[in-house]
């Protein structure tokens, strides 16, 4: 998942080369996007742990994951700085505006990546450390180069977004389990309708940047909409598997069913009316769906940790 948001405040400002330390670092680290990474990492940890016996371990897991996620974001922006300058959504980022030099960003990316790996290795073990390091490499060396080449980049990006709950789970238990893969699967599938809706709204912007996304290849939007409906529908049985495997209770099963059908309905409405307004409704529905689902999951944690 790349940086999707550009605030209206940033868009309204005149272009200036005057550096602003905090906003520059925040933009380079993609704070808003990576907040979701920390949430899903934390959920993976909390759901996996029989009891939160060590808040310190959770804190170190989040700190290490935050450093690794910031590193991946910096490498991504280094590699895409020229394309970012061509797109309205990203032209205000620090590198296109020359608020900071590329060598400095590269050094920060390396330091944060190493720090994230080292923190996780020292505090919660080699498996979450290896997952975080692998995610940096996957995001920077596979996902980012694929974006101007093939629309399949979306699937690779979804893998990157599915790894954080695995980091949290393995940090809590030291091992993988079926429940961990269920959580990762939910995150993987959720990103597809979420991103497709966004890519449809900003298809002209992606074209300016030279990125290859499904909505650019699908001029009518029919294949895009069908993909969104199918993947939203898959979330229903996938979420119910959390109850099947004992990591969630029946309240979660009921809530996930209602939320999944509602999200699917919004995608069906986009299939019928493939307008930007409908795509925006799907996008905001996806933003509401995930935190609601994860909140119920944490509140209705099952007794079994398979």
Mean pLDDT: 90
Number of strands: 0
Shape: flat
Low-confidence spans: pLDDT under 50, at least 5 residues? Answer: 1-18
| Terminal-residue CA separation | 29 Å
The number of domains: 2
Number of helices: 13
CATH topology of the largest domain: Tetracycline Repressor, domain 2
In terms of DSSP E residues, the strand content is under 5%
Largest β sheet strand count, sense and barrel closure: none
CATH homologous superfamily name of the largest domain? UbiA prenyltransferase
Give me some keywords for this one:
306 residues; mainly alpha; Tetracycline Repressor, domain 2; Four Helix Bundle (Hemerythrin (Met), subunit A); 2 domains; 13 helices
What's the layout of helices and strands?
Blueprint: H1 8-12, H2 21-29, H3 31-48, H4 55-84, H5 102-123, H6 126-146, H7 153-173, H8 178-201, H9 203-209, H10 214-217, H11 222-244, H12 250-272, H13 276-299
Explain what you see:
This protein has 306 residues and is mainly alpha-helical. It has 2 domains: 1-13 and 20-175, Tetracycline Repressor, domain 2; 177-306, Four Helix Bundle (Hemerythrin (Met), subunit A) (Up-down Bundle). Helix content is 75%, strand content 0%. It is built from 13 helices and no strands. α5 packs antiparallel against α6 (126-146), α6 (126-146) packs antiparallel against α7 (153-173) and α12 packs antiparallel against α13 (276-299). The two termini are 29 Å apart. The model is unreliable at 1-18 (pLDDT under 50).
